[in-house]
């Protein structure tokens, strides 16, 4: 099989088909001269005695027909420090078969069952006998870990820096608790948190495994596998092949597993410090550091929990000397729940601790599952509504399916192992094999070989040292070179001038003479409106003006002879009618005295006489008025009436002229789809179009408040818009806002820059990134300025 190692395939997980013969006796003796151990084997079939080397002895005591080549190889390489391939293993074992020391066990039922099981569910490249269907080996990281282990001095320096960095991170969090939690909540509000958090967690997990693998290689354990395990069958997490690590002594193992915990603390502390240093400048780097810091510390807390099989649990079991603490506690809890009695040799304190630990483990796992489900369901329900709850229940169902699948696969393996053990015991007893079982049991591992002293550096390594020294010196020189600090920020293009053209009179759009993007000159027609009501009102106002003018003219000219004659005729007619009414009244009074008429009839005649008398007086007054000249008051009133209607006609005429909307100044029409508004009705004040003079663009840069001290009016500005990323535009700082503004990214100050824009490339609302050419300083100071500010302000604030 082509792969990362020759002979590396599924058969490596199958039980090796070799075991010690039942009639073989193994013995050992110590050479009195050299003090070394010598091993002997006696064949029960021929009676021959063979002296074995340490490798042959290792084969004899380790191979029992059940151990797989993967397990055997890891133990062999950890003990002897030499690589063992499958072909060498088979050749070595076949030699011992020919010597009548080992025998093949190809007919073992367990071998067949385990082989079929491995082919069905396991990754053929996973050398770990604990493999599950959700583990997949990616590659052999030996060379990568060797390269990382080569920089051990740097690793030791980072290890010693964990504690002071952690203290600094705790101090930062204590002084900025609200801001730290608020920034993380701001990130968590977005639904993309379900993508960002897993990606960041995977990155942290990968870094931790790389550091742990490098530490293991430095300690002499050659890790042969870096793979991925899918938690809940979906979420990937990296893992290491730990067989070589388990072959080391407990103290070394504790150092390796503590390295993963320290790495998480290191990442969390460094990112917390970077968050505090970058936060004044704003932007996504500070948000990303906040996210990584929280995730790293949460990852540390999760890995350090002794109730889960994580690095913290493994470290604790090594300290306590209880490698199967969790399994034994859960088994004891299960036994007590079923009503079975505890083992007599188990102390009361041990029983209590086992019960408490097993119960705490189950309660913790249940609490985590419930809390995780509630969090996911609430988030999804808030973002998606009902479908979000359905998705949450689907995720819960998939997680349950993953757990049951893993549990079933593990149970199949355990069942096959138990059946094989029963068969082995039965076969051994039938053949009088008590001695066989005793001989087939693995002996205690001999003392591990001590690492050999490092070789003296070769000339090539000395040459590389000179190269690295030269590069370090060159890097130091570069750090001391002068450099112009260029603080920057995102910018937005605003027009240098903008004029809104609004309707000054209501009306229907009849004609449109321009379109979006068209350049217009001052006074050029834009839109013509129609308003029939306004035209009718203008005609009425003109008629009223003509009438008032005629009245004024009549007052100035006086009455005509015809008017006087008409007034005199009205007086004569009224006098004649009065005489007639007087005669009728006298006759009625005479008849009343004679009793011929009634008093009511007389009263009616008296009323008619009074009315005729009043008409005569009115006619005489009208004649006097007609004959008299107009007064100044009458003339002033008539003139005022004329002026009123003249102003009204002029106003109506101006309204008619306002129906023709023209450009108030030169510029480009920037209103979208202005040419598609024909027929629309505009009210007074409604926007018709916007005109902008884009020949000069104004860029507003959102500069972090911390960089304001390095910027002044007149400094040159370099700008790159997103729409023209290949071009660098230049301008100068024209103005700096007198106050800072608050935004999601922090406080910033608006820096205004004007740029020539004759080609109209910079359009309003376009954005990009701009830098202001500030002060000159050394390279190291320019690139560490954010950290210098952090020390000068944040750290300074810690001390009373």
Largest sheet: number of strands, sense, barrel closure: 6 strands, antiparallel, barrel
Give the uncertain stretches in residue-range form. 1-10, 107-131, 427-460
Give the percentage of residues in beta strands: 15-25%
Looking at how many chains there are and whether they match, the oligomeric state comes to single chain
What is the straight-line distance between the termini? 68 Å
Number of domains: 5
* Coarse shape: elongated
Judged by helices, strands and strand pairing, the structural class is alpha+beta
**Quick check: average pLDDT?**
77
Please tally the helical runs, counting DSSP H or I stretches of 4 or more residues. 23
The value of Rg in angstroms is 52 Å
Spatial ordering of strands, largest sheet: 10-19-22-21-20-23
Q: Compute the number of strand runs.
A: 24
- Share of residues in helices: 55-70%
């Amino acid at each position: 099989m082509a792969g990362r190692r020759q002979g590396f395939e599924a058969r490596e997980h199958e039980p090796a088909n070799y075991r010690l013969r039942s009639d073989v006796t193994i013995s050992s003796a110590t050479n009195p001269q050299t003090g070394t151990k010598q091993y002997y084997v006696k064949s029960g079939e021929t009676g021959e005695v063979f002296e074995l080397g340490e490798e042959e002895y290792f084969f004899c005591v380790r191979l029992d027909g059940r151990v797989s080549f993967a397990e055997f190889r890891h133990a062999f390489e950890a003990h002897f420090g030499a690589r063992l391939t499958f072909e060498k293993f088979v050749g070595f074992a076949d030699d011992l078969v020919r010597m009548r020391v080992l025998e093949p066990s190809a007919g073992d039922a367990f071998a067949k069952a385990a082989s079929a099981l491995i082919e069905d569910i396991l990754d053929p490249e996973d050398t770990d006998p604990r493999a599950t269907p959700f583990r997949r080996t990616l590659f052999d990281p030996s060379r990568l870990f060797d390269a990382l282990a080569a920089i051990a001095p740097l690793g030791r320096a980072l290890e010693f820096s964990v504690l002071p960095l952690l203290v600094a991170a705790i101090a930062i969090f204590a002084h900025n608790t609200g801001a730290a939690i608020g920034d993380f909540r701001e990130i968590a509000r977005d639904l993309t948190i379900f993508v960002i958090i897993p990606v960041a967690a995977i990155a942290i997990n990968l870094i931790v495994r790389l550091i742990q693998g490098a530490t293991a290689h430095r300690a002499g354990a050659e890790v042969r596998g870096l793979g991925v395990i899918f938690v809940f069958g979906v979420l990937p997490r990296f893992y290491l092949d730990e067989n070589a690590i388990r072959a080391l002594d407990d103290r070394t193992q504790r150092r390796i597993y503590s390295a993963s915990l320290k790495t998480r603390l290191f990442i969390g502390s460094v990112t917390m410090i970077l968050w505090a240093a970058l936060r004044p400048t704003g932007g996504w780097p500070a948000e990303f550091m906040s996210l990584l810091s929280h995730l790293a510390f949460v990852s540390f807390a999760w890995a350090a929990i002794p109730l889960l099989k994580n690095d913290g649990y493994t470290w604790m079991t090594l300290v306590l000397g209880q490698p199967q603490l969790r399994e034994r506690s859960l088994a004891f809890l299960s036994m007590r729940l079923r009503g079975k009695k505890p083992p007599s040799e188990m102390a009361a304190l041990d029983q209590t601790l086992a019960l408490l630990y097993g119960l705490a483990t189950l309660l913790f796992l249940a609490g985590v599952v419930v809390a995780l489900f509630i969090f996911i369901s609430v988030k999804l329900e808030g973002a998606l509504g009902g479908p979000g709850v359905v998705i949450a229940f689907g995720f819960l169902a998939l997680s349950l399916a993953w757990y049951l699948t893993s549990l079933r696969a593990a149970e199949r393996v355990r069942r096959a192992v138990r059946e094989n053990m029963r068969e082995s015991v039965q076969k051994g007893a039938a053949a009088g094999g008590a001695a066989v079982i005793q001989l087939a049991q693995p002996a205690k591992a001999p003392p591990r070989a001590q690492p050999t002293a490092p070789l003296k550096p070769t000339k090539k390594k000395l040459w590389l040292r000179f190269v690295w020294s030269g590069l370090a010196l060159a890097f130091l020189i570069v750090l001391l070179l002068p450099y112009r600090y260029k603080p920057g920020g995102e910018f937005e293009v605003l027009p240098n001038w903008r004029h809104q053209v609004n309707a000054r009179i209501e009306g229907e759009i009849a004609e449109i003479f321009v379109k979006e993007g068209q350049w217009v000159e001052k006074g050029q027609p834009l839109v013509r409106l129609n308003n029939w009501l306004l035209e009718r009102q203008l005609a009425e106002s003109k008629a009223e003006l003509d009438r008032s003018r005629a009245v004024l003219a009549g007052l100035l000219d006086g009455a005509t002879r015809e008017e006087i004659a008409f007034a005199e005729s009205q007086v004569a007619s009224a006098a004649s009618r009065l005489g007639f009414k007087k005669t009728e009244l006298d006759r009625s009074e005479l008849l009343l005295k004679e009793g011929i008429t009634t008093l009511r009839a007389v009263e009616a005649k008296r009323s008619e006489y009074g009315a005729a008398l009043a008409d005569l007086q009115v006619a005489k007054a009208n004649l006097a008025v007609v004959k008299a000249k107009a007064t100044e008051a009458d003339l002033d009133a008539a003139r005022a009436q004329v002026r009123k209607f003249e102003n009204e006609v002029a106003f109506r005429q101006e309204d008619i002229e306002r129906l023709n909307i023209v450009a108030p100044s030169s510029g480009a029409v920037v209103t979208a789809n202005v040419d598609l508004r024909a027929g629309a009705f505009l009210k007074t004040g409604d926007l018709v179009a916007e005109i902008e003079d884009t020949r000069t663009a104004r860029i507003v840069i959102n500069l972090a408040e911390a960089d304001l001290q390095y910027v002044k009016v007149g400094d040159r500005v370099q700008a790159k818009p997103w729409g023209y990323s290949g071009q660098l535009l230049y301008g100068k700082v024209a103005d700096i806002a007198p106050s800072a503004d608050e935004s999601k990214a922090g406080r910033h100050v608006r820096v205004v820059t004007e740029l020539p824009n004759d080609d109209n490339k910079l359009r309003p609302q376009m954005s990009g990134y701009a830098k202001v050419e500030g002060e000159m300083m050394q390279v190291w100071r320019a690139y560490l300025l954010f950290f210098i500010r952090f020390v000068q302000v944040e750290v300074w604030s810690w001390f009373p």
